[in-house]
Please model this.
Amino acid sequence: MAHKNDSNWSPYKGKKGGPLKGAHKKPTKIFSLSEADQRLEDIFINHGFEGKVSHEQRELFTKFYLLLMENQKKENLTRLVSLRDVAIKHFIDCIMVNRLIPLKFPLLDMGTGPGFPGIPLKIMVGPEKKIILAEGVQKRVNFLKKVRDELRLEGLDIIGRNVTADFVYPVEGVITRAVEDARNTLGNVMNCLQTGGRVYLMKGPNVDPEIDVALKTWGDYYKLEKDKSYELPNTQNARRLLIFQKIKHKED
Model:
C-alpha cells in the first residue's frame, strides 16, 4: 500500500482510480449514533475544528459514517474502517480545503468514489451551494444516492459516469481527491470548466513532477494559481493543494 504521504495516496481508490484492489476490510466495530457523535465531537475539537462544525453538521457526519460502515460490510468502498481514521483522513481531510481557500460553485467532484470530498463539503457549505458528484461505478452511484436521500442533502446532483474530455456539464469549479495525473485531469475538464474557473487538486507532498508536466501540456490554457503545503491539524499527514485557473478555452 502507498505511504500516507505519497503524492498518489488515496484512501479509497486503487492506483488508477478504479475500484479498490486487495483484501476487503470490514469494520470490526460500528459505534451507535450517540457514541459516534460524541467521539466525532472530540476528534473535531482535538484536530483543529473546535467551534467550526455545528451540532447539526456533526450529526450529518455521524450518519454518513454509519452509512459508510454499514455499506462497507458488503462493498469495498474504503480502506479506512475505524471511526478515528474516517474522521481524520476522510472528513477532516476533505473539509480542510474549504477552510484553506474559497471554493467556486457549481463545484464538480470528479471521481468522488463513496463521496469524497463532495459530501463532507456539502455538509459544510449547506444547500445553497451546488455540488455535483461524478462517479462511474454504479454500485458507488447507488450508495451516493442513498446517502443524499437519508441525509436530505439539497443542492447535490449525482452523475453516474466518468469525467472525460466530452463531459460538458458547465461548472465554475472542479475538485478531486483521486490519483489521476494532474495533466489528465486538466484535459478531461477542459469542456465543462468555464473560463476563469478553478481546478482544486488534493494531493500528497511529492507532486512537483505532475505540476511540471501539466503546465508543459496545458500552460496555454491554465495557470497554477496556488500551491499550498499543509498538514492535517495535529497529525503528520502532509498534503498539497494545487489550484489551477482556466485562462483560455481550447477550441477544437
User: Anything to note?
Assistant: The domain at 33-246 is CATH 3.40.50.150 (Rossmann fold).
